[in-house]
Amino acid sequence: MDNLQLAALAAAIAPGNEIVQGKQFVEMTVAPEHLISTATILKQNKDTQFDMLVCITGMDWGKDLGAVYHLRSTVFNHMIVLKTKVSDRENPEIDSLCSLWQAANFHEREVYDLLGIKFRGHPDLRRLFLDSTWGYPLRKDYKDDVNILGR
Amino acid sequence: MEEAVVNVPLEQEEYIINMGPQHPSTHGVLRLVVSLKGEMVQNVQPHIGYVHRGIEKMCENLTYQQIIHLTDRMDYLSAHINNEAVCLAVEKALGIEVSDRVKYIRTILSELTRIQSHQLFWATYGMDLGGLTCFFYGLRDRELILDIFEETCGGRMIVSYNTPGGLMNDIHPNFQKRTKDFIKYFRKTLPEYDRLLTGNVIFQERLKGIGRINREDAIAWGLTGPVGRASGFSCDIRKHNPYSAYDKVTFNEILYDEGDSFHRYQVRMDEMWESMNIIEQLIDNIPEGAYAEKMKPVIKLPEGEYWQSVETARGELGVFIESDGNKYPYRMKFRSPNFVNLAPLNIMATGFKIADLVAINGSLDLVIPDIDR
To answer: Which pairs count as long-range contacts for A111-114, CB under 8 Å and 24+ apart, including other chains?
Structure first.
């Protein structure tokens, strides 16, 4: 399925989300409260069948924090990008997708570790690389006194 | 007087041991916290981050040409393929088409990289399971490829030979001859590997049926590379989304259904033959042309998001760039194959013996700096 058809189909089965054609993939911005329902539809619809979660990228867009999900269908070999953002920087929370794709487990822990986004419903949300005394280094407002490159 | 205690059975309840971070069979600083009941593994929790260098954060203050040198340091056994991923992403974003010469050379070097990585896997896997001879055989033959790299790229392991728009410099005049000599030699030597290790009864007994993961789980956990393909999950990026010169060659994607440690091993052994086939189709036909396109010294990607995946020796490496039009990426993310392949270690190893944990862990062929980044 090419991107045009995919965008039309995604708009039909999961209405109410902002869908744009990005540089390569269809990019769908989902409100955090609709993330699980939209992801479930995309995974279970027989014409989309996004059964593989390729990657979760934690993002800091300055004002908002968020996550970018790259989904792939191993049946049709097409990809779609899901995005979600929260504006609460003190206590950002996004629903976990571990129940849909187990691969989300480590990816979400990584995002939590480096950006401090909590994933509701994650079975084992602990820091992954760093210990608890670190801040969240991938945030844009993170201050690192010893970083040689930043100076 | 207290009753003398005789013949107390060893502890019945679960106990916990640490494997690593300085354990030879974890191939780096990976720490596994293993819960055991007797000899049986109940639970494995990987603890990672001992070589976390914050590469993604560093990328935010580096130009794209500089980032390439960091990608060598992730999966250092697939260094050339990692470089290629960033180069392809940047070239795609700028709309640059490199010459066929560059594509052919990149593909040949990628396949040589894959062979040397699988050779090292074979060498260390044999050693993990008690066959030290493999280590010498594997490293002896791997040296020949590293010599080819040294002559053409200047580096042996961390080559940094790709740049956005092409290659650092043209291939060495000896490159084709030495590569063909190597293939000729290795076609004779690879069956020796099978005679030494693959057919060994102890080896087979220790691997068959151990650490099984089925196709549905492999997809749900996002396993790629030889680990995914041993479970019957067709995930070869070279086949499904060809890049460089992979659409010009014919090769088989190796698939097995069993999904156990032995077939993860077998996929890699077969892939070495396929890699040699690919190189042979290309090595005599490298077209003339520029080895690099003319690029501006400062590369600024247009605003937007870019994704490129390539097939490294361990699976799918995805590069995600979000650019705000600056010379530095706004956010750079590496979806590294080892990071994803490590995650289901718990469900693979539970219910097996602790010695099997070494076999399972080895069959994943982990490179720890790629997990930590």
So the answer is: A111/A56, A111/A57, A111/A58, A111/A67, A114/A58, A114/A138, A114/B56
Which pLDDT score is estimated for B144? 92
Hey, what domains does chain A have and what are their CATH numbers? Answer: 3-88 (3.30.460.80)
Cα separation, A8 vs B118, whole angstroms: 43
Contacting residues of A for B309, CB less than 8 Å apart: 54
- Determine the Cα–Cα distance for residues B122 and B128; give it in Å rounded to an integer: 10
Nearest to B115 by CA among B273, B301, B319: B273
What ipTM was assigned to the predicted interfaces of this complex?
0.87
Interface probe, candidates B305, B309, B326, B366, chain A, greatest A C-beta count within 10 A: B305
Please tell me the distance from the alpha carbon of residue B59 to that of residue B228, in angstroms, as a whole number.
29
Tens digit of each residue's pLDDT (9 = 90 or more) over B190-201: 998 988 888 888
What are chain B's domains? 53-340 (1.10.645.10)
Cα dihedral value A127, A130, A131, A133, nearest 10: -110
What are the chain A neighbours of B331 within 8 Å (beta carbons)?
57, 59-60, 138
Contact indicator for B279, B110 with CB cutoff of 8 Å = no
pLDDT digits (tens, 9 = 90+) for B267-284: 999 999 999 999 999 988
The CA distance from B238 to B225, in Å, is: 11
Q: Residues A119, A112: contact at Cβ < 8 Å?
A: yes
Q: For helices B175-193 and B132-153, what crossing angle results, to 10°?
A: 170
